[in-house]
Amino acid sequence: MSDRTILIVGTYDTKDDELNYLAEVIRGQGGGVMTMDVSVLGDPSAPCDISKHAVAEAGGHSIQEAIDGGDENLAMQIMAKGSALLAARLQAEGRIDGVIVLGGTMGTDLALDLCSALPLGVPKYIVSTVSFSPLIPPERLPADVQMILWAGGLYGLNSVCKASLSQAAGAVLGAARAVERPDRTRPLIGMTSFGKTVLRYMVALKPALEERGFEVAVFHATGMGGRAFESLAAEGAFAAVMDFAPQEVGNHLMGSTISAGADRMTNAGRSGTPQIVSIGCYDLVDFVGWQDAPVKLAGQEQHAHNRLLSSVMMTADQRREMAQTICGKLAGADGPVVLILPLQGGNEWDRPGGPLSDPEGLEAFIAEIRAQCPANVQLVELDAHINDPAFAEKALEVFDGWQAGGALRRA
Fold first, then answer.
1. Three-state DSSP state, 21
2. How crowded is residue 72: how many other Cβ atoms within 10 Å of its Cβ?
3. What angle do CA 312, 318, 321 make, to 5 degrees?
4. Alpha-carbon distance 95 to 280, whole Å?
5. Which pairs from 395-404 meet CB under 8 Å and 24+ separation?
């Protein structure tokens, strides 16, 4: 008897050989297989466990409706909705332990919806002709999805594409066997930050929160880290968040591709999760180091962090726009929000005399925060720098008050 069951998803009318090859590899390693057909026009060589008719019906339509619509994009969205709902149901019922989806651009579009419907810790693999492509926006990527390029696999099996397919089949089964799913016995705190060179509050806060009985997950706010943070916040996975590094908000605002999506800094509020917010690296915009800076930032001072990542300092006007955007996002929160405003700066480099010190820009940002702070947000001004011990102490003071008052979100 197989120890883990993998759901294999694809268009069996056009990729029957490749999908059956995946099943053979998984079964050959002792795994179990469940198959789902997301074709629209054709039929597989043999019946699948979940037919295209069942998928379309789960999406609220029929295959005939998808065909009669005459639009392949709309047809695939019907199948994407149905496959996502069915996959989530199968996983919740304990009938599958992981999923692998294969496709080109159409199949990848569907795969992203399907994988997003599964919780963190469920192995999810996408074998795609457009893996790692800029076609895929960061907000579409689930927090723990794995992708492999389907090299040489556009049409039919060959030794090149088998190398990719066999790796993916082995990887998803291995992951299903090895995964340690998130342990929710301790309430979870979500925190955003960067490395200790620029932001240091987590060094004091993480052990202090753990001593209070909480688990702390710190997310690297470089686009994908913020995406993972937001996806968990949307699930209501956090008892509270300490969203101290909102730089991804500025990245998106200024047109950088290093973005966590338009919904950055909104999902905790939508789920009613208490938020302590601050301004870590609010004044910097990251962009891909081997590309030109975004048009909005052309001609501004740049700093190369490494060969992958560069940063641009915001002007005073851009900092005012950043302040307005942060306040606008927090205004929609359903849970309690405290914005801690460290008046002496928001990253190690902007201290007086530091390489990114800009007192006028900082004051412009502070003044705009004061002017735009919404009524539902408690503004706490702190005459300190974000990396000073006083900042972490103030954050713990707010948190302890919430815990004593029963304001933290229950899982």
1. helix
2. 12
3. 135
4. 43
5. 395/201, 395/205, 395/242, 395/244, 395/276, 395/278, 395/340, 396/205, 396/208, 396/209, 398/276, 398/338, 398/340, 399/209, 399/240, 399/242, 399/276, 400/212, 402/240, 402/274, 402/336, 403/212
Place of tokens 């909005």: 296
Per-residue pLDDT at 290: 83
- Cβ within 8 Å of residue 316, ≥6 positions away: 360, 361, 364, 365
Those residues whose C-beta lies under 8 Å from the C-beta of residue 145, and which sit 6 or more positions away, are: 112, 115, 124, 125, 126
pLDDT of amino acid 411: 63
Quick one: which of 225, 6, 234 has its CA closest to 102? 6
Does the CA dihedral 161-162-168-171 come out positive or negative?
Answer: negative
What mean pLDDT is predicted for residues 174-194? 92
DSSP class of residue 119 equals P
Residues recorded for the chain: 411
Predicted pLDDT at 301: 81
- Using left for φ > 0, alpha for ψ between -120 and 50, and beta otherwise, residue 226 falls in alpha
What residue spans of 188-279 are helical by DSSP H? 201-211, 224-235, 247-253, 267-270
Specify the DSSP element, H or E, that contains 112.
Answer: helix 105-116
As a whole number of angstroms, the distance between CA 149 and CA 152 comes to: 9
For range 280-284, the mean pLDDT: 96
- At residue 275, the 3 state secondary structure works out as strand
Tokens for 331, please give them. 């205004």
Over range 302-314, report the average pLDDT.
87
CA–chain centroid gap for 289, Å, is 21
Q: How confident is the model at residue 2 (pLDDT cuts 50, 70, 90)?
A: low
Residues 203, 205, 210: CA angle, nearest 5 degrees: 110
| pLDDT at position 400 | 98
Beta strands 240-243 and 188-193 are parallel
Tell me the C-alpha distance between 17 and 44, whole Å: 10
Q: Tokens 């409706």 label which residue?
A: 65
> Residues 89-115: what's their mean pLDDT?
96
